[in-house]
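Field guide to reading this record: the first block holds the primary sequence, the second block holds the structure written as C-alpha cells, and the final block holds curator observations. Each block starts with its own label. This record concerns Cyclic nucleotide-binding protein, catalogued under organism Elizabethkingia occulta.

BLOCK 1 — SEQUENCE
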Amino acid sequence: MDKIIGQLIAHFKEIVPLDETDINAIIPKLEIKELDKKDYLIQPGQVSRHMRFIAKGSLHSYYTDEDGREHTAQLGIENWWINDLYSYLSESASRMYIQAVENTTLVQIHRNNLELLYKEVPKISEFWRLKMQGAYLILQERTFENMRFDAYTRYRTFVNSYPDIEQRFPQYMIASYLGITIEYLSALRKKHIADRS
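BLOCK 2 — STRUCTURE
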C-alpha cells in the first residue's frame, strides 16, 4: 500500500476498526493531490466537492473582508482535515480561500465516492459522525474562548493545545487566527516565554 494512502487508513483506524475488505473498498475511491507552496486549493466562487486529508505539509483557510484584510479561519497540518464545509455540505460557492503554506500532499475523497463508501463501508459513516462531533466541539470551544478569555489566555491555550503548529505558520496567520495584531502576538509570545522561565 502506498505510504500516503496508508497514512490515511491508519488515521481512519484510530477511530473505527477496518478489515481488509473495508480497506480494499476505500482505496480505489481516494485521490492524491499535490500542491506547491502558495497554490490555492479553493478560491471564492468554487464549490468544494471533496473531503481533504493533509498527508504532508500545511494549509490555511481564510476570507477577506471589504477592506481586503485576511481573516484566518483554520490552520491545518499533517493528519488534519481541511475544507470549506459550508460549501461542501450546501453544494454552494465557497467564500473562502484555502492555500498551501508549504509544499503539500493531500488525499481527497469526492463527495460522490464518500456517499458510496457510507453504504459499502458503514464504519466510514461512523468515522465522519464522530469526526464532525469532535469538530463541532472544537468550534464551540473556540467561540467560547474568544468571548470569555483575554488574548493572552487564548494564545496560551493555542500553544499548549498545538505545540508543533506555531513554527509552521507565519506570525500574521497565527495573529489573524487568534484575532489580534502581529505586534500584540509578539508581545504575548515574549510574556509567555518570560512566564515559563
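BLOCK 3 — OBSERVATIONS
The longest strand covers residues 50-56.
The mean pLDDT is 91.
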